[in-house]
Amino acid sequence: MGEARVDPDNRATTRSQALYQRARSVIPKGVYGHYGPAIGEDSPVFFESSSGAHFTDIDGNTYVDWMCAYGPMILGYNHPVVDEAAARQMEAGNTVSLAAPVLVDLAEKLVDMVEGADWALFGKNGADSTTLAVMVARAATGRRYVVKVDGGYHGSAAWMQAPGNPGTISADHELVLTVPWNDVAALQQILDEHGDDVACFISSPYHHPVLADNELPAEGYWPAVEGMCRKAGVVIVADDVRAGFRINLAGSHVEYGFQPDMVCFGKALANGHPIAALVGTNELRQAAGDTFYTGTQFFNAAPMAAALATLQELEKIDGARLITNIGTRLCAGLVDVASSHGHDLRSTGVPGMPYFRIAGEGGFRFHARWIAECVRRGAYLLSYHNNFVSAAHSDTDLKATWDIADQAFTSLSSTELGS
Ligand SMILES: Cc1ncc(COP(=O)(O)O)c(C=O)c1O
User: Fold this and answer.
1) Which of 319, 397, 335 is nearest to 82 (CA)?
2) Is the CB of residue 127 below 6 angstroms from any atom belonging to ligand 1?
3) Which pTM value belongs to this model?
């Protein structure tokens, strides 16, 4: 795959845009769900190929990809070790009338790797693991309410969506209570009012909403939450679907000093192969076994083999630390480039999943224009969502991205400053 650099003056997206128009006649919205909002008049929409930290769109433009498929790509696209493990399992069998031995190998690996995990169950998407976690918490406690953080995302099932979203009804949200992030007092108030009917508190380990600065836990936040939930008999569910394996291979909770009762994984677990996992403690083993939650594809063996290979590879290369280092350099370099043009670029969240925002003049509009200019030059970033760093991003990718960022600022300086 060629170098990720695109000439903005000769870049075409005509094939992508034409196919998008075709898509719109047979697929509602054309490209939907979380892939939809990224599409603008000038966007690449469809890929032709991918390799390492790059993808090439169907117009032949190659990008360094800082979205990593919204998280799943952690070792690089088409990773030979992972894909070979999946292919080998595929040859032996993928979806068969019996479970494959790799089911047990993978569960053992997660129990071994993840701090506090005594068992594992598998599904396909992150929402499978968050849904199952809530069901297990309810089965274990006999309680009804779920407490979540305002703006926290746990998937697209009706109860997880914002009230009023099309297709949801008020009953979907009746048993979901929300608290602001980092607000121990608000959580205590809810536990005081509803404590004996609260099954679980579900939250990502740090707060990564869209269109807002991402926020790390305040000093002492998680230990305080843990203490309050233990006292009230409320199950703690860490939703590590997005951040999992980019902060700490033993679970992001280790970094923030608390022990959840269950941890949800998805996204990066198999470097893009479809599988999610829920792990939990012995106290919840009985409830987890009693809870019926399954799907036709849940026993696909090839994604399990891919997940096992991904975890082994991440351990081998000390993946979370490597990604954190690359992300730290990415952020520092972009902040420096911005500063050299007189802009205050803020990078929030963790280095492996940075959320960028240009503070001050021009606000979000200027920021979005700058990101669009980066995309036009071959650095695929998103303006309104956290970006993702992988172990496959090289020094060359970093340098290319800083150069692109620099040129993007230059291109905007005459037209946008002060607008
Ligand atoms: C924190 C978190 N939890 C759960 C999910 C849902 O995962 P999926 O889209 O695979 O169902 C997501 C997806 O973005 C997520 O970021």
Assistant:
1) 319
2) yes
3) 0.96
pLDDT digit string, tens, across residues 124-174: 999 999 999 999 999 999 999 999 999 999 999 999 999 999 999 999 999
Helices (H), 95-233: 102-113, 126-141, 170-173, 184-194, 221-232
Is the CB–ligand 1 distance for residue 204 below 6 Å?
A: yes
Q: Ligand 1 pocket check: which of 34, 73, 242, 247 to mutate, most ligand atoms within 8 Å of Cβ?
A: 242
* Pairing of the two strands 276-280 and 262-265: antiparallel
In the chain, residues under CATH classification 3.40.640.10 are: 80-316
Query: 270: Cβ below 6 Å to ligand 1?
Result: no
Specify the domain boundaries for CATH 3.90.1150.10 within the chain.
14-65+319-416
- Asked if 389 and 65 count as a contact pair (C-beta separation under 8 A), the reply is no
Calculate the dihedral angle through the C-alpha atoms of 188, 193, 197, 200, rounding to the nearest 10 degrees: -20
What spacing in Å lies between the alpha carbon of 239 and ligand 1's midpoint?
8
Return the residue whose CA atom lies nearest to atom 3 of ligand 1. 154
279 pairs with which residues across the strands? 120, 263
Q: Buried (b) or exposed (e) across 332-354, using 16+ Cβ within 10 A?
A: ebbbebbeebebebbbbbbbbbb
Q: Is 242 in the pocket of ligand 1 (CB under 6 A)?
A: yes
Question: Could you tell me which CATH number the domain at 80-316 has?
Answer: 3.40.640.10
Amino acid at 248: N
Domain at 14-65+319-416: CATH architecture: Alpha-Beta Complex (3.90)
DSSP, collapsed to helix, strand or coil, labels residue 314 as helix
